[in-house]
Amino acid sequence: MTTHAPHASHTVTLPDSLDEAVAALTAMPAAVPVAGGTDLMAAVNAGLLRPAALVGLGRISEIRGWQYLDGHALLGAGLTLARMGRPDFAALIPGLAAAARAAGPPQVRNAGTLGGNIVTSAPTGDTLPVLAALEATVIIAGPGGSRREIPVSHLLAGREMLGPGELVGFVRVPLLHAPQAFLKATGRTGPGRATASVALVLDPARRGVRCAVGAVAAMPLRPLEAEQWVASLIDWDGERGLVPEALTAFGDYVAAACIPDPAPPEDGSEPATLPPAALHLRRTVAALARRALGRALS
């Protein structure tokens, strides 16, 4: 169905299926897909974007739910943040549910979608560090009914991009059946954009700890050496607890990896130090990582 707004030059197309949406985008290369519109409309209102046409995804029921598939959850890209914050979803993927609940005020959570978070790839997107820590993959729908699957980290880093007519249709997330945590710091009280966030998941089957830090860089950062170090300290067959000193050391390890000291000058002069704002951010990340690991192990 296509409607034309009065006194406007752009077209709004409302497909009923994912393949219809792909066909509409293929036929109108200048069109912009829109689901919740929380980021898109902010850009339009700020005068940063003037789409020639819109392809609305709100009628596509196949991308608004989830299903179980071979030890994974297949999440529709149209899932709203509010829906992911509910108890039944939290029992499935607690880290993602916690991020969805922290994503902003109710009007944002009711409209914003998982796929929108991924495609917009804002550094402060709350679901992104959780998806990175879970090593999720995205299933991309393309012209002619094609489907391809890539790691979400590749899309966020720009290593692989959406092609003409392509849409993120689903997100595949492994079900770890183990504790997960998501914590964020904001610049003010109440729901707000993160100044730093940390997602942490335990993977008992692989005896691993996976951590991702959000909002401090253009994409979530994985402190791989810190993950491997702390995983080696955990008694996976026992209580899994760690002494406070180990939790503190892990937090410092993560923070230093994500906000490193400046490189020493090549001329041998006095090394530069981090500015106060960066030192404060490093302390914030250290505290979040320490608390997230403590919660996951408690």
UniProtKB/TrEMBL annotation:
<dbReference type="GO" id="GO:0071949">
    <property type="term" value="F:FAD binding"/>
</dbReference>
<dbReference type="InterPro" id="IPR036318">
    <property type="entry name" value="FAD-bd_PCMH-like_sf"/>
</dbReference>
<feature type="domain" description="FAD-binding PCMH-type">
    <location>
        <begin position="4"/>
        <end position="178"/>
    </location>
</feature>
<dbReference type="InterPro" id="IPR016167">
    <property type="entry name" value="FAD-bd_PCMH_sub1"/>
</dbReference>
<dbReference type="InterPro" id="IPR016169">
    <property type="entry name" value="FAD-bd_PCMH_sub2"/>
</dbReference>
<dbReference type="GO" id="GO:0016491">
    <property type="term" value="F:oxidoreductase activity"/>
</dbReference>
<dbReference type="InterPro" id="IPR002346">
    <property type="entry name" value="Mopterin_DH_FAD-bd"/>
</dbReference>
<dbReference type="InterPro" id="IPR051312">
    <property type="entry name" value="Diverse_Substr_Oxidored"/>
</dbReference>
<dbReference type="InterPro" id="IPR016166">
    <property type="entry name" value="FAD-bd_PCMH"/>
</dbReference>
<keyword id="KW-0285">Flavoprotein</keyword>
<dbReference type="InterPro" id="IPR036683">
    <property type="entry name" value="CO_DH_flav_C_dom_sf"/>
</dbReference>
<keyword id="KW-0560">Oxidoreductase</keyword>
<dbReference type="Pfam" id="PF00941">
    <property type="entry name" value="FAD_binding_5"/>
</dbReference>
<keyword id="KW-0274">FAD</keyword>
<protein>
    <submittedName>
        <fullName>Putative oxidoreductase</fullName>
    </submittedName>
</protein>
